[in-house]
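Predict the assembly for these two chains.
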Amino acid sequence: MSLQDKKRERIPTHERDTQKRKEDFFEVNLGYEESEAISEAQRCLQCTNPLCVKGCPVSIDIPGFIKKITEKDYTGSGEILRQYNYLPAICGRVCPQETQCEGACIMNKMKGFQPISIGKLERYVADRNRSEQGSIPVENHVNPTRQKIAIVGSGPAGLTAAAYLAERGYDVTIYEALHLPGGVLVYGIPEFRLPKEIVRQEIDDIQKLGVQIKTDFIIGRTMTIEELMKTYAAIFIGIGAGTPRMMGIEGSELIGIYSSSEFLTRINLMKSYNFPRFDTPVRVGQNVIVVGGGNVAMDSARSALRMGQTIGHSEHITYHPNHVKVVYRRTESEIPARIEEYHHAVQEGIEFHWLMNPVAYIGENGKLKAVKVQQMKLGEPDESGRRRPVPVEGQFEIFEADTVIEAIGQTPNKLLLESFPQLKLTRWGTIQVDDQLMTSVEGIFAGGDIVTGAATVIEAMGAGKQAAKSMIAYLTGK
Amino acid sequence: MSYTILRKKQVAPNEFDIWIKAPQIATHAKAGQFVIIMSDEESERIPLTIADSDGKEAIRIIYQVVGTSTQKLSRLNEGDAISNCAGPLGKPSEIPTGEKTLVIGGGVGIAAILTIIKTLKEQSNHVTTILGSRDSEHIILEDEIRQISDELLIYTDDGSAGTKGLVTDAMKSLFEGGREFDAAWAVGPTVMMKYCSLVAKEQDLLIWTSLNPIMIDGTGMCGGCRVKVNNTIQYACVDGPEFDGRAVDWDILMNRQKQYLQEEQESEHICRLGLSHQSQNGQEESS
């Protein structure tokens, strides 16, 4: 293929029709067909000094796995991915590739070229291998012959650390507080972005490596860290960001106001979109306001939209999606959400109101009726480098609303930390670690959101892997 | 993990007393704590107070059938297993030593005071217990509680057991008789806990109440169980469930407990029709 051929536009993946997808929770992006994946893979320049790899938090050999696609060697391609990433079908779907591998792709700098669709190719390989075979080669299944290691939390950090350690012969047990493993992958990210069956299968693969997962197990309550220390040679804490931050403004106790954590947990973990087949309900009114501009805000808004009403019966059924507004205190250019998710939200009819911040919730008979929002403007840059939103004196608006979902971030969950005060914390309440990810207590490591504050799935996986390497070094005295 | 029901007995109309095999919880449970139970994979996660523990193998739960989740639970018998049981959750009761204490249990909330009384006695406290319910049939655990309390008063709405009246009448008669206490507990329906707290407040008496807002994860992750205590937001699952009732905003709690009333009725209706597994959101299933 000539360079001129590689210049053509990246091949888009198939997406479900906007009108149809608003009515259900099935996956929006349908991925590539084989011929499309091959064509897209053929565009890769196969750089000898690939920038994409530097942009990847787990340094996947990206040109390597893409080359195997052009050779139709999907097993080989999957094996390359597996060397770096135990959750490729998940990462292919939820990584912010545009700021990582794809953002670093050399083609961004070449006039008339577009970056390779690395995430979608990763997804293609992972999905294809998953449907044809158990995706981890049997020779990787080893009988544990080395020490016992405990992992607290079964999210992306914990799963990655567990898989890495199990492949190297350690006897790994993961403790999960909820009734299903996966952490944010099951309670946070919605089905239409990350089908739970895929999460389950990738976790199954990790269990095949010999990793044991104990659910309903709250470290700090069901068992203490001190007890774990008696049984395990090392411990990794990857318990995530934990507790929702809330606005705390007047009227916050009214019925109809959710944290995004509660709202998404009801929908994703408890499957309340299937109520009453599943027993947990979620109440979503027809006028919904989501507060925030991150991925969680997009997930909340798009989930709320899908919880609309089916009206009529038999052939006269019409579906009425809910009316959803997102209010964000900065502007479009500052939203932390992935651009792809923001575009999906816009396509689906979510309204965005920039430079607005709720200041009070107005109720009637204990239920939310309206939200009073204040007009904001951008001032001087803050410590994050983004311009700080400041209120415009005296300028308010009232939005009618029966449901509010606050998606303004998380703070560390105190449950485990309070039960084990020996762990030194930072001034943000996250766990303090050294450059090997070891905490202030010898033999206890930590990584992911509980160390960095809320971040991405892939960054948590990167931390899980780094911690696993440090744990091996610690245990082998190297 | 198999959470088998080892023993089951009906203790009142629509109230069941079960022992569940859960060694890890049994060895860690303390007075005042609760578990989150799912009877099957489609169930809600419902919080239920741990009524007792054998300290080795099993925990005891006493629940009232009030909605779909508890109906499903009630269909399981000895030898059956529930799908999930997580705990012990919440902070344990703050048990003093050598004090004069008053413990009040109302309705199925009586189940929750059993371990509190036991632990108070272990710490050499004097315990006066008040049990209240609508009628004699709904007074549960009377014999067990009589054995461990220093003094026991029973009040029923219809007078079919003990004295006719409310538990707050019992409190008032004690105070009018000049009795003094260092600390009190009240566990039962929210409205009962509210009025017990008002009476205690008049006496300047610390009164611990076990709050039961709608809850999902029980580990501080969702914020659904937020309550207002001393004008600050607290999460009942991790900051409680016991709070000084004098500082609780009861009206907010009662309003928030009604969030899913409509869905509960819809689900329970389907459940009663027996159309497979349907349910409601757990409120006041126990205390």
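Residues 123 and 282 of chain B are 33 Å apart (CA to CA). Confidence is low (pLDDT under 50) at residues 275-287 of chain B.
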